[in-house]
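FIELD: query
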Amino acid sequence: MKHVIVWGAAGGIGRAVCEELAGDGDTVVAVARDASDLASITRYTVDANLADEASVAQAVLQATAVTEAFDLFVFAAGDITSAKVPEMPLTTWHRILDNNLTAAKDRLKQLLALGCDSLVDVVHLVMQALPGVPLVCDPVLRAGGGGSLGKDDVGYAMRERLLPIAAVATPNLPEARILAELPEGTADECAAKLSAYCQHLLITGGHGDETEVHNRLYVRGGDSHTFTCARLPGSYHGSGCTLASTLAAERKPANATTPIFMAHGTQDPVVILKRGEDSRDALASLGHKVQWHTYPMPHSVHPREVADIAAFLKQVLPA
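FIELD: result
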C-alpha cells in the first residue's frame, strides 16, 4: 500500500488519480480549495488555497499528520488561459508559471523540509530519468537533538542518495554539521567528511552573525575557495535558497562548454584581484573553459583588454 498526496484533487486529473489510487487501496491525502466533495473517495481530505502560503503551510502539517513519508507526490493544481499565445501579456505567463511550476516545487520542498525522506528517492528517480541535467542540492534541514543520523532521517537520505549525484550541494554550516554528523564541526572539518559523498560542496555563511558573509567552496581532492562579502544590515531568510536557485538556473548542459572570457585589473580597489581569481578557479573546478586575463588598471577598461575581447569573439563565434 502506497501513501499518496494529491494537490488539486477537486476535479479533472487530480480527482481521477485520487479515485484510481484509493480504489487500489492506497492511502490518499486529497488537497483542494474545497475538499468536502472528496470525502466519498478518501477519508483524508485537506482544504487549502494554493495562493495563500499560510493555508499551504497548514495543509502540509495536516498531510504529514497522516503519514511522515509519502511514496507519491501528485501536483494536479494549475492555471490555464484561453488567450492566444501571441496576445498573452507577460504577467499572464508569470502567473501560469508560478501556479503550474513554481508552486509544485515549493510544495515538494515544504514536504522535504518536514522530513519526508521517501521523497528523496523520488528526486533520485527523477534525476535518473534526466541524464546530463545537473542537480543542485540545497538541504533544508532542521537541527536534531544529537550528532548521529539514523537511516530514517531525511539528512541521511540526502547524504547517501542525493549528494553523490549532485553537481554541487549548498548547505549552511548548521546543515553541514547535521550531514557530516559533527555537531560542533568547523566548515573545513565538515567538508573533509562530506567530500566522500559530494564532488563540490558550497557551505554558505548567510546563517551567521559576523560582519562578513563567508561562502566556502570545497572541491573533492582538496581545492577550496572562500567568497567573502559584506553582510547586509537586518535579518533575512532565504539567501541560501536564492543562491541554490541561481546556480540551478545558470548551470545547464547547454552552457557547460561555453567558453568564458574573464578579465581583471591588478590595481582594482573596488573588486580586489583575489575575488576575480576565486571566481575563475570556481568556474574552472566545475569544468568550464575560462580564458583569464589581467591588465595594469584600476576598476576600468584597458585598451589591450578591448583588443583581447575582439580576438576572443572572433575565435569562438562562427564567421
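FIELD: remark
The two ends are 61 Å apart (CA to CA).
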